[in-house]
Amino acid sequence: EARLTATRAAMAAQGLDLDDIITLVSEHFSVDQTIIKSAIKQTAAARARGIVCHLAASHLRMTGTELAEYLGLTPSGICKLAARGRTDPETGELSERLEDIVAKRGRGNVG
Q: What contacts 39, CB < 8 A, 6 or more positions away?
C-alpha cells in the first residue's frame, strides 16, 4: 500500500499517470483502451499492452506487480510484455511523445 502510494505520488509529480500512457498507446495503434486493459491475446492488443508495460515501468517506475494488479495479469506476464515493448520499433516515438506531454503539463498546458 505504501509503495503504491509512493508510485502514485511520483506519477503526479511528473504530471503523468498510467491512464495517460494507455490513452497514448491506444490512439497510436487504434486499439480500444478496454482491450489493452484486458487479457485478450490478439496481436495488436498484446503489442500495445507490451509497450504500455515498458513505458509505465520506465517513465512511471511502476513495478511488475503494480502493473499486474492494474491490468489483471501476472507479474511474469508483465515482465514478458515489457521486454517485448522495450524492443518494439514504435516505443521510442511513443516515449518521446510522453516526454512532450510531461513538458507541456509542466508549462501549464494541457497535453
A: 71, 72, 73
Q: Which residues of 27-59 are buried (b: 16+ CB within 10 A; e: fewer)?
A: eebebeeebbbeeeeeeebbbbbbbbbbbbbeb
Digit-coded pLDDT (tens) for 64-91: 999 999 999 999 999 999 999 999 999 9
- CA pair distance 8, 41, nearest whole angstrom: 28
Q: What is the pLDDT of residues 32-45, one digit of tens each?
A: 999 998 888 889 99
pTM: 0.84
